Amino acid sequence: MAEAIIGDIxxxxxxxxxxxxxxxxxxxxxxxxEVLAVLKHPLxxxxxxYGKLEDVFFHERKALAFHEKMxxxxxxxxxxxxxxxxxxxxxxxxxxxxxxxxxxEDTEFNRQAxxxxxxxxxxxxxxx
Length: 128
Fold this sequence. Notes:
The protein has helices spanning 87-103, 108-123; strands spanning 9-14, 17-27, 30-40, 69-73, 77-79. It is an alpha+beta fold. The chain starts with 8 loop residues before the first strand and ends in a 5-residue tail after the last helix.
């Protein structure tokens, strides 16, 4: 992407999730982005040993919250010209798409990831 300017709406890849956000600051090699919507929910499990359950810590990762700020490398942002969905709707859609992907193949790893997502839905996401 060409240089973004403050106020631009962008798609940003951050850790293992993808978000729609607003550029708030130029920080040299990064932009400070404010989260407006979730496009892809962060992956569950150990990212360095994805798909493995033995001898790893199985992480539960929450999506970033509405208006939360993230420091994103400039190469990880892209222009976006679609309508920004409501945060709650976008989060629900991202979780459902991830669960569908996980249920497509019945593995112990996928079952663990689904349990983590259900826990997030029950304990954190139900307010959206």
